[in-house]
Model the fold of this input.
Amino acid sequence: MNRRGVIAGIAALLSAHGRLRAQQTRTKVPRIGILSPGMDASNILFDAFRNELRVLGYVEGNNIILEFRLAAGDFSRLPAMAAELVRLPVDIIVTDGGPRVVSIAYEATRTIPIVAAAGDPVEAGLAASWAHPGGNVTGFLLNPPELNGKRLQLLKEMVPAISRVAAMWSETPKLRLTSTEEAAHVLGVQLLTIEIATPDRIAEAFEAAVAGGAEGLCILPATMFYDHREEFAALAAKTRLPTIYPGRAGVLLGGLLSYGPQNVEVFRRAAVYVDKILKGAKPADLPVQQQTKFELVVNLNTAKALGLTVPPSILARADEVVE
Done:
């Protein structure tokens, strides 16, 4: 083969290699990591996330891959899981479970975009501001601290004679607990704060509430509490303590009241942010969104079982009444 033929052959090979690389780039399937202290990859929130991705044109296992890393309530497992997602590597990390989980993801990577589906990155100190995050983290403020004070107010309105309430919390930022304590002071309610560090301490927490003279319960937001909502509902019914939850799931299982954000909507919006980032948007430029829609749910059957009459003021504001 003459020199010209050799050059032509090399050029053909380089051209074919370039076409192959371009094809591989075009067909690269984005990989999304889901980091959560939860235990079920098919719960209503993750299903909402998947459904919105489908609306946006993504089909799991086809043109997008979801890598779930679920700690089943054990936060100590999350750093290793976050590191594993970075090593894969994933294109985006979506976090669930509050500011602590966002911080764990941030410690694992300062370059991979992070979307906090539940957990204010500004509160966690990982974003400069809600309007201009400025780094690799953006997301959604799901449960503003003042909601805990509002929940206590609603419980007092529902049971005016109540004077001592147990607030159950886990992995709760100090600001949220402080807002509950401040509301208790304004309402003239004695507050018994009970931390539940692990699922095996849930029954013990209810025993402590009863022993401490609690006349009602205020359940603060925690992924572990949601995962074990059936146990919470059963123990609340057994102790006959009027209970307010951060979400409607507790009321559907027999709780008295709930007041909180529409979590499903937040996870849908997280999918929208994932789509924007995959199309070139930077998390630094995507504002942290605050949840503005909150729903009040009341269970009339539970009220009747507890011998309570639901005040007209609460019924008038209820978004949903369970009968």
